[in-house]
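Cross-posted from the bioinformatics board.
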Amino acid sequence: MKNFNLGTLVAIAGISLALVFAPSLLAQKKMIQVKGSDTMINLVQILAEEFMSKNPQAAIAVLGGGSGTGISGLINGTCDIADTSREWKQSEINQAWEKGITPRLFAIAVDGLSIIVNEKNPLTKLTMDQVGSIYRGEIKNWKAVGGPDMAISLYGRQSNSGTYVFLQEHVLRNKNYSTDMKEMNGNAQIIEGVKADEAAIGYVGVGYVVDKATGRPMAGLKILNISKDAKSEAFSPMDKKAVDTGDYPIARPLYQATNGKPGANIAGFIQWEVGPEGQTIVEREGFYKIGDAYKQMNDKNLK
Amino acid sequence: MNLKSIPKAVVLVFLAAVACSNLFSQQTFSTTIYFDWSANLTNDGYVTGTDAARANNNKFQFRRAYFRYENKISDVLKFRLTFDADNTANITGVDFTKLSTKKDDKLRPYIKHLYLDYSGLLPNSNLKIGMIDTLTFKLAEDVWGYRSVAKTLVDGYKDVTGVDIRASSADLGGHLLGAISKAIRYGVMISSGEGYTHPEYNSFKELSGQLRIIPIAGLSFVGLYEYEKLDDANNAIMYKLDGYFEMVKGLVIGSEYFSYNNDKFMNADLSHYDSRGFSIFGSYKIVVDKFNVFARYDHYMPNSTKSSSNINVIIGGFDWTPVHKSWKIQPNIWYYAYADSTRKNDAYFNLTFFLSF
């Protein structure tokens, strides 16, 4: 190399710039990044705020985007905790394995997945099979399930949503959703759509449709009772006992996942969430406390 | 590949697939662009010491623009169309050193991907048919993660050595990729062998097979075998072995080794030679989504019987996201060392701008 030229000077300037900025960038590393399920985002934000108010040294950022987004974030190292309202798919477990990620799951709440219709719809209940047939597009008119003579208008989530996948696996029997379904960005959009459309049906986490002041369904909506089959009794997702016993057939755990055994900061937050204070908030926000089986799973995965 | 060179039937099938897909299915558009400001750090090297290089120093250089349309037709069927814009002089044979301003110097879009992706054939598998990614260096490129800075070893082989080892990133054909378990992955492919820059001109096909073993989380070994019949008398075979280490949070280390045997590769004395090479690369996320560093060492052996043709390339730089992940600044330095003692070493600086939205 004979002399310094413009390129050399720019290269040196760039590297110097990086060294100047690096310390302030490194300082951002301490924040716990939580990403994922839109069903869980409000709940986890409230849990995080409460936890931070009691632990001023803690810093937690909570983002949504859907369960799939959270899982991708954990695999790609862009978050520390993935919120998921469904189990991990085999393809995601495989991808995590490639990237050296060994997910550990913690159940922090239980959700009664709610099937909602417009409050003007006279229908009060459906069977699991009927819900599946409606969302597969096999039943297209409310009259076929005892409702008014009106074409059914389907509202659902996009495929990165854990709720989309959970319903597909457990209610649609792994078959495709009707291509007529309107794929909404979030729970709030589904609720607004169902409120505005008399022919609508939608699905959201129970915490989104219960008015916390009255303990009743939100104005403009009706939450349908769901039965396992035509011979069984139909139950509401607002019936805590039915959710606990499994009589309400589409209840599900809400998970957080970490990469391997969580470090002290993350473990501290999760332990608080699944402890008495966190679980009180879970119930206050319209979801349900975890049972003994999930408590044992959490304890095992925290060790 | 130019649109005109794709068989009409293939185009019709894909257009029909797009047209039949429901309006409510998930459709996405995305764009990725990268370009450099480049300057030579040496002025007496094998390349940088030429009059043309001196005249062409301190320049903006457009590298790539991808425009991608994806349509999720159903949970098991997807469609992808990617236009890739490059300086087509690379394809049309315009001589850059003549600083031509002819129309062929323009940046033009061509089709990089045009395929259907079906995931319902076998559990945990994807069958892709159309203009698809080849198996040759897709995995290495994903692990390296800095295509915006440098092509991977096999992809960029011709650029560095001038030896065409007939490796393309995309080709017309079909492949099946899948997982037998979380520790074992496979891939098989049949394609025209012409890549995306030319239509097929003979009946010979390229066959590829790939096996990936991941014995423990984050540690992968990949073996690749490719066979192509070039004409009635000549074949080309490539063996490739990759290893990836991703067991430490934020740290990625990868390596590639390949050997390419082409029956047509002959020295002046009619002795046969292979082309080989290996690469070791790594990156580390110092601050996630904000600041990463990367480095790479490549060793090129374009003629296995002539070690003086060997070339070493070292690349290093960092990746800074100042505001939003949709644009990044990736300053990087390249250093070329030649085994041929008559060639002086070269060094370049690139200020790479990466935009994705």
